[in-house]
Amino acid sequence: MHLLSTIERHLRRTGLPPTRFGREAVGDPRFVMDLRRGREPRQRTIDRVVAYLATQDRDR
């Protein structure tokens, strides 16, 4: 899944724990773990993650 690979790159680059990413991006600390297990997020959730990543990249 492209979204998961994008998130994984962000986590490696920033050192952010997956639980914190999930909590900050979508309010779900299990989000990344669930994606790793095959969870298919809805488009609205994907949009929230993309917006969060864009904000993080802009703030760097």
Number of strand elements: 0
Structural class: mainly alpha
Helix content: over 70%
Radius of gyration: 10 Å
In the predicted model, the low-confidence regions spanning at least 5 consecutive residues are none
Assign an overall shape: globular
- Report strand %: under 5%
Order of helices and strands: HHHH
Q: Main sheet? A: none
Return the average pLDDT rounded to an integer: 94
Number of helices: 4
Give the termini separation.
25 Å
What's this entry about, in short?
With 60 residues, the chain is an all-alpha fold. Helix content is 75%, strand content 0%.
Tell me what you see in this structure.
With 60 residues, the protein is mostly helical. Helix content is 75%, strand content 0%. The protein contains 4 helices and no strands. The protein has helices spanning 2-14, 18-26, 31-36, 43-59. The longest helix is centred in the last third of the chain and has 17 residues, at 43-59. The protein is globular, with a radius of gyration of 10 Å.
Features:
mainly alpha; 4 helices; 0% strand
Give the topology.
Layout: H1 2-14, H2 18-26, H3 31-36, H4 43-59
